[in-house]
């Protein structure tokens, strides 16, 4: 998180605390003067609502600045990346049969469990 975002977050929290404090003070002070009760209750509630709204808006703005879209893949690009990987292969070094799991299929190279030989997975592009 950048320094400007941290400062903005601290300011947002301070403003939230101050407005909420005054909102609570107005609400607690409403029974003191019966002629001003309704007005003080309304002002207190409005201050608290404004404090929450400002905090949410500022935090969402900070959160939006974190993400940056680098590249959007078109459906055509996704089809090109699809490849067929067998679920079982045989190590050329020691002859051990290897079961290729879904996690392993995502990688380019897998290693034999017995001898440690690096096996490059095929990149056959097959459309079924």
Instruction: Enumerate the spans where pLDDT stays under 50 for 5 or more consecutive residues.
Output: none
Average of per-residue pLDDT values:
79
Determine the N-to-C terminus distance: 45 Å
Question: What is the 3D form?
Answer: rod-shaped
What's the number of helices? 4
Give the amount of beta strand, in percent: 5-15%
Q: Which class of secondary structure composition applies to the elements? A: mainly alpha
Taken together, the total number of domains comes to: 2
Report the radius of gyration as a whole number of Å. 31 Å
Order of helices and strands: HHHEEHEE
**DSSP, total strands:** 4
Biggest sheet statistics: 2 strands, antiparallel
Helix content: 40-55%
Strand order of the largest sheet: 1-2
Note down, in words, how this protein is organized.
The chain has helices at 3-29, 37-66, 75-81, 102-105; strands spanning 88-90, 97-99, 109-111, 118-120. With 128 residues, the chain is mostly helical. The protein folds into 2 domains: 3-66; 77-120, no CATH class. A two-stranded antiparallel ribbon has the order 1-2. The chain has a two-stranded antiparallel sheet with strand order 3-4. The two termini are 45 Å apart.
Short description:
The chain folds into 2 domains: about 5-65; about 75-120, no CATH class.
């Amino acid at each position: 998180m950048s320094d400007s975002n941290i400062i903005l977050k601290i300011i947002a929290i301070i403003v939230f605390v101050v407005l909420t404090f005054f909102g609570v003070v107005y609400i607690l002070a409403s029974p003191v003067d019966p002629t001003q009760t309704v007005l003080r209750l309304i002002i207190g509630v409005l201050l608290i609502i404004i404090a929450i709204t400002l905090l949410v808006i500022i935090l969402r703005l900070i959160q939006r600045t974190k993400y940056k879209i680098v590249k959007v893949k078109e459906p055509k690009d996704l089809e090109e990346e699809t490849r067929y990987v067998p679920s079982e292969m045989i190590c050329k070094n020691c002859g051990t049969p290897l079961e290729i799991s879904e996690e392993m299929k995502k990688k380019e190279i897998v290693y034999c469990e017995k001898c440690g030989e690096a096996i490059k997975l095929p990149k056959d592009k097959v459309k079924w």
